Amino acid sequence: MPAQLPLPYPATVPATSRPSSSTFTTPPCPADATAIVPPSTGRSALERRARLTARLAKLAATGHLAPLARQISALGGCALPIRLTGHRTRLDTATGEILNHLDSGRLPAGELLVRCGNRRATRCPACSTVYRYDTYQLIAAGLRGGKTVPTSVAAHPRVFATLTAPGFGPVHNQPDTGRCHCGQVHPDDDPLLGTPLDPERYDYAGAVLWNAHAPALWARFITHLRREIAKAAGLTQRALRHHATLSYAKVAEYQKRGQVHFHAVIRLDGPTGPTSTPPAWATTQLLDHAVRAATTRTRIAHEGQQPQQPAGAPVGDRADRLVFRFGRQIDVRAIRGTDFTGDGPVTDRHVAAYIAKYATKGAETTTGTLDRRLRLLAELATHDITDHARRMIHTAWHLATNRRHAHLRLRQWAHMLGFRGHFSTRTRHYSTTLAHLRAERTAWRTSQPDTQTPAPAETQVGQTDGSPVDDRTGHPTDLAAGHRSRHPNIAGKRVDSDTTLVISHWQYAGTGLVPELEHLANLLATTRQHGTRTRRSEHSGDRAGRPAGHPVGHSTDRLTSAARAGAVT
User: Fold this and answer.
1) d(CA 63, CA 40)
2) What whole-number distance in Å separates Cα of residue 256 and Cα of residue 211?
3) Cα separation values, 205 from 311, 405, 478, Å
4) Three-class SS of residue 14?
């Protein structure tokens, strides 16, 4: 990528109205905007902000700030958008007519900007919020129906189970009664919570290896759970599939001590899934007993390369093999179908909200570790993390040098404290999928009245006014529109995707925004918050003499005025 990122304005725009070629400067490493080198020590943050605001003011003076603001606003506050370069063309297969054409070079930013979709709240709060809402709907649909799941599923036996890790040494905690082992009462925000009382005697190697084997331990637990259900029903495991189906959705959560434990919604359905009625013997009490029995029976041995047996050792000696199991603290609760708990068990609403809360949180939120991989162990010195997390990362890094643990890939997952499994899994029959929820949201947006569909002169096919196009939602330049069931053509009409051919070619250009656009995104966020406060005080503003019908909320005019005022300051 060149050192400068010129805006792709057409030749019809007078040269005096174009921004200078040095308006946008690309980051030093376009593949990762997070690696931008900070300004020199001689430049203060205030001077840098004033310089960026002055550049935006130049765009506002030439009338190019509004298209940029619309393109940035379409990201919904994404902190690390994906930058793409390329083109896309839609053709009508029946007539061969070109419905519309998108070239990233004609967009205001010169690139197509797509939301990152990261689930981690520490990486992108905006995208993680959408992910959390989708997870709530996915879990709730498996408990009370909806989203392709029948409402009769609410009457099926289901429990909310929590499986924890065993202890690897005493840690600072908050017992229900009495004080901690250290003799103190720790508040909720005490950084000592979860840290070992004696770090030198804490079994860090066992803690890391347990996290690495946690996914296999969960898979073995599901196998034992099916066996226990069949045993309680007086059936064989092969015959169980003809009477009942086991469905579940689970999420992995990190405790403060750095160990993974699982929260799971477990449900018993009929032989064909949620659409069929479970047998009469399938009760909540039977499922509760089966979960507890399967947890105590679940064991898994270390499957790595075994060390050389000493001379004279008996064949098949397993004394040196590591065996992992769940902790003794097992919590299994029945799930009610109402929104009021009282003194009864938990409800489907609380379970869905509880699991969705941890869908966007990783080890970095609870334990204070990293949210990305380490390339070199020396990089750890540049990060501000807790001593307990640092020691667990060091332990995972050094355990990887042992050939016995090579299959665990501990160095790749050292930032996750050894855990290398999926944080969230579900069975196929539990409920809908995240892809289905996203498709529903896209279809709903497409079905809404399109008030922003441009006139034919504004599209890239036959564009005559020379103004840059944007990629706002509902516009023919929207990347997601190429995968929708119906989309607008040049005339604004809906076209069936069965008769539409989409030809596209996209290349990855980088992650994150250049400094100028990042500053613009911050201004838009501030303007959006100001608009929210203005809408709340709309009635008081009317009483103060504001003209009726005055626009409230986000406005590019307000943003332009703010940019110009900031440049003067």
Assistant:
1) 32
2) 14
3) 27, 11, 50
4) coil
Q: What is the model's pLDDT at position 533?
A: 61
Is 357 a member of any domain? yes
**Cα dist from 300 to 182, 212, 419, 483, whole Å:** 33, 12, 16, 44
Question: What letter represents residue 361's amino acid?
Answer: K
Per-residue pLDDT at 229: 94
Q: Which of 430, 455, 483 is the endpoint of a domain?
A: 430
Give dist(CA 216, CA 211) in Å, integer: 10
Asked if 520 and 412 sit in the same domain, the reply is no
Residue 17 in any domain: the answer is no
Cα separation, 176 vs 337, whole angstroms:
29
pLDDT given at position 191:
81
Looking at the domain assignment, is residue 1 inside a domain?
no
CB 43 within 8 A of CB 65: no
pLDDT at position 247 is 93
Which of 430, 461, 485 is where one domain is finished? 430
| 251 in the same domain as 210 | yes
Q: Give the pLDDT of residue 536.
A: 59
**Binned average pLDDT, 10 residues per bin, the chain of 569 residues:** 36 36 43 43 68 74 77 83 90 85 85 86 85 90 88 91 91 82 82 86 92 93 94 91 92 88 92 91 93 93 57 38 87 75 66 83 73 83 85 91 89 88 87 87 73 37 41 42 39 54 89 77 72 58 46 44 46
pLDDT value for 190: 82
List, as one string, the DSSP characters of 178-220: S--TTS----TT-TTTTSBSSGGGS-HHHHHHHHHHHHHHHHH
Nearest to 391 by CA among 196, 162, 523: 196
Give the DSSP letter of residue 295.
H
- Annotate 31-79 with DSSP letters as a single string: T-GGGPPPPPTTS-HHHHHHHHHHHHHHHHHHT-HHHHHHHHHTTTT-S
Residues 84, 157 within the same domain: no
pLDDT the model gives residue 528: 67
Q: Is 107 left (phi over 0), alpha (psi -120 to 50) or beta?
A: beta
Spatial distance between the Cα atoms of 159 and 336, rounded to a whole number of angstroms: 9
Say if CB 347 and CB 159 are below 8 A apart: no
* pLDDT at res. 97: 85
The confidence score (pLDDT) of residue 42 equals 46
Report in angstroms the alpha-carbon separations of 383 from 254, 351, 386, 415. Answer: 20, 35, 10, 12
Domain co-membership, 384 together with 241: yes
The pLDDT of residue 385: 84
One-letter identity of residue 564: R
Q: How far is CA 427 from CA 265, 337, 340, 353, in A?
A: 11, 21, 28, 19
Phi, psi dihedral angles at 155 (to 5 degrees):
-90, 0
Report d(CA 93, CA 502) in Å as an integer: 10
Per the structure, the complete domain to which residue 521 belongs is given by: 52-128+501-529
Instruction: Please report the DSSP string for 331-378 in residue order.
Output: EEEEEESSS--TTS-EEHHHHHHHHHHHHT--HHHHT---SS--SSGG
Q: Are residues 337 and 237 in the same domain?
A: yes
Examine residue 484 and state whether it is found in any structural domain, yes or no: no
Phi, psi (rounded to 5 degrees) for 531: -65, -35
Indicate if 121 and 155 belong to the same structural domain.
no
